[in-house]
Amino acid sequence: MNLNNHLEENLKNVPGGVALIVLDDLLTVLHGTDTFCSLIQNIRSKSNLKFPLALLRVVYSADIIYVTQQLAQQRQREDGMFRINFRILQDDGHFKWVMISGNKTMEEYTSGNKAYPVYSCIAMDVSDHMMDYKRLEQMVEYYRVISELSKDLYFEYEIATDSLIFNDLFYEMFGKESKIKNFRKKLEKNKIVHPEELPAVIKIFDTMMTGKKQVRFEVQLNAKEGGYIPYTCYASMIFDENKNPSKVVGKLDTKGRMGSLNEKALMKLKKDTLTGVYNKESVMIAIKDAMDKQKLDALSSLMFFEIRNFKGMNEIMAEHTGESVLTQIANLIKTVIRTTDIIGRVSMSEFMVYITDIPSPKIVYGIADYLCSKIDDLYGYKHSKNALSMSIGIAFHKGSQMDFNTLKANANTALIMARKEHGSSFEVFYD
Predict the structure, then answer these.
(1) How many structural domains comprise the chain?
(2) Which among 390, 400, 403, 411 has a CA at the least distance from the CA of 302?
(3) Measured between alpha carbons, how far is 205 from 381 in angstroms, rounded to an integer?
(4) Any idea of the CA torsion for 42, 45, 48, 50, to the nearest 10 degrees?
(5) Are 246 and 261 contained in the same domain?
(6) Is the pLDDT of residue 42 over 70?
(7) Distance CA 163, CA 183 (A)
(8) Euclidean distance between CA atoms 32 and 394, whole angstroms
(9) What is the domain extent for residue 357?
(10) pLDDT tens-digit profile of 206-256?
(11) Collapsing DSSP states into helix, strand and coil, what is residue 126?
């Protein structure tokens, strides 16, 4: 076998396939290996493709503008490289994400009176990567919305540059730039921290710079409208690959909604000894109070969580980590809700969460979908009798018209429907 034949045989085995593609308006494919043809066809297509063919015609219709924008960017490149990605709709309703990358050749393709460059390209099926990316993108957007709703201030302090950076909400709350350079010098003279608390804040900052890994403290900050807002500051040190202090990350957490309860009711609120969230009686008191004080146009949601088959998994986790599965799950739920939201344990394996003042039901759907996926990843061992799953029932209400018992019954109805699924899932109550 000569070198050219050997090379051609190897190209046929490249995963995803190899093709010669013209950078024209239709992305004309002059030639492609069998694996390339298989990649760009949907499940039903079995016939051999004929070249030249217009690659743009197999692109999912909703992605045409997206691909056109990518082509415009590729034409501006001067490095001779080429890369685009797009979706192909399969017959079973799923999408296949395809990425094509390549290098410019010496050849040109003439169509009409125009000559277009030809690229030698490799194609890959990147569906798994793109789905992970899209889920991550959705979670980033979710956390952005949550941070805006909660009025929490997230920050990052770069030790090397002495720069403190807050999220955009900082400017809205205090009328100051969200990036503060030469922070250590400005800390002593700042007028945002309450004067009586400033010496303690400076001391805490210095202790972190001398090696303390985590801190938590109370502080009052002067808002631009006037008046001090109480915050709880949580901060943790991040180390680089050489185990040297690199940055401090954390948040300034606004006081929770529990402040709306009167002193007598506050005294009754108690925590569940195992999970650290409110117990059954306390969570119901807190939710009823929040519902009574809800604005007429505000949308809120009650979520019922049931942990299924937790006993077998709990025995395994207790043996290896000494920690209860229910404690881990309670902590997981707390990472995706705001401090102004309410969480409690209402039975052996059930939790109740009340999420207040949400702009769209999609926020709650995102929380439920993320938690179901996370539970399946962490505890959903396939082909094992110890696999654990989570069922979630969701109900919404607007204003203060609905009473707690009705909202609870609606969420429970949705939970009953969610239980019918084998793995983790959620259902929403609709009238």
Answers:
(1) 3
(2) 411
(3) 44
(4) -70
(5) no
(6) no
(7) 6
(8) 50
(9) 257-428
(10) 989 887 888 888 888 888 777 778 888 888 988 877 778 889 998 887 654
(11) coil
